[in-house]
Each structure stands twice: as C-alpha cells, then as structure tokens.
Amino acid sequence: MPExxxxxxxxxxxxxxxxxxxxxxxxxxAIGTLIRIFGTTADQRAARIAFIVAFxxxxxxxxxxxxxxxxxxxxxxxxxxxxxxxxxxxxWSPMSLGSWGLxxxxxxxxxxFLGAVAETGVTWLDPVSRILRGTVxxxxxxxxxxxxLFIAGYTGVLLAVSNQNVWSDAGWVLGGxxxxxxxxxxxxxxxxxxxxxxxxxxxxxxxxxxxxxxFALVETILIVxxxxxxxxxxxxxxxxxxxxxxxxxxxxxxxxxxxxxxVRGLPLLTSPVLTLLGVLALRAVVxxxxxx
Length: 292
Hints:
By secondary structure, the chain is an all-alpha fold. 73% of the residues lie in helices and 0% in strands. It has eleven helices and no strands. The chain has helices spanning 13-38, 44-69, 72-76, 94-118, 126-131, 134-160, 167-170, 173-197, 202-233, 244-258, 270-291.
C-alpha cells in the first residue's frame, strides 16, 4: 500500500532547503552529462563545473533531512533494518525509494566529482579521471543522470502521493514541475559560474542560455498545468492570497531565464540570482500554502 500523509507533515524550512538543493544537484548533474557527451571540447570546462556543483549541492541534502528528523539515527532507518539486520527497501514506500535514490545518486555524484576535480590538475586523482574517459565515462554519467533526474523530480512526487489538498490535487504534474524547475535553476547557476570563472567561450555560454530558456519554458507550461489542476479541484484559492508575493518571485525567476539571460549590460549575476530565487519560491509556495 502506498504511504500517505494523514495530516499535514508540518514541513518547515529544512525540507524546503532539501527540496531546493536536490533540484540543483540533480539538474546540474544532468546538464553536466549532456555537456560531457554532446558538447564541444571548449564546453568540457563547463561540464566539470556542473559535476562539482552537483556533488556540493547534494552534500546539503542529507544534512537538512537529518536536521528535520531531529535525530541522525532516524535517517539510517530508511536504509537499514535495525530489528532483523541487513538492508531496508520498501518498493511501495516513496520515503524508502527516495532514501535509496539519494544514496545511489550520491555514489555517482561523488565519483563524477572526483573525476571533475582531477581534470583541474589534481594529479593524485588521475586514476579516476582515466577511468571516466571515453565510453566508460559516458555510460557512468548516463546511469548517474537517471538517478539525478529521479532526485530532482522525486520531491514533487513525494508530495503528490499524499492526501494533502493541493499536493494530491496536482497529481503527476508536481514531479515534472519540480524537475523542470531544478533544471532551470541548475542551468542558471552554471551560467553564472561559467561567466564569473571565465570557464567557457561565448559558444558555450550561448548553448547554456538556450538550454536554460528551454527548461524555463517547460517549467512555465507545467506551472500553468498545475494551476489548472488546482482550479478544477477547487483548491486554487489556497495557494493565492497571501502567497501572491511568492508567485511574483516565481514569475520573475522564470522571466529571468526566458528573457534576461541574453540581455547584455546587466550585472553578470542578475539573471542567475533571480532564477534561483524563483526556484526556491516555487517550492516554498507549494510546501507552505498546502499546509496552512
């Protein structure tokens, strides 16, 4: 039987930050893989940044989860069977699936992170870099991307399988919306880092801008579908009212990726910062408006 929340889980800021960093981690890894496999030689420095960002962002996820649980040992209950010994895996449980997905993605993200760091000149990591070259590296990254996309969208699915108004009313669209939002935020962050570090030529920057615009377009479509679903269910008013300010931040973030990224003359980090604030605000309004 699927697990459902019988009452609001009373999630606060720690879970919001977990959802945010999970989206950035998964989105960055997926973008890094796309660059690694399909990008040019000049693009590869951006791929390295993407893999480094993915792992650094992922580090925060278990920290925020453990803080929210209140006890580090409670997290181990998701993957270990304390009473019988061995591993704990419940295919019907979204929490169990998420815990294992986070753990497995962590393995791929860590190894890819080591490979990326090795490529920056850290010689003692050269064996990792050599292993991840060519076909082996492409396959590793592709498999890791499956878990990355799962983590980026899983947070929305976790909400959708509850019986909480708004979350359950949205159905499948929540997972897709969070996934698209995570890719948008990750693309914007990489654009900012690429620009500030001089890590790519203008071609790389233009390709990242195009990708981020496409992610933002998909995100916009799914946000509209989300609102339509809530309107049909009669719960649209629950996420409006006092939450309109957050929706304004969401809109500004989407606009930044759709239109502002290519506006020359703006401060370099204007568009990425606005987009990331929009990604955070989207998760905040979905999490908090449904509970209060």
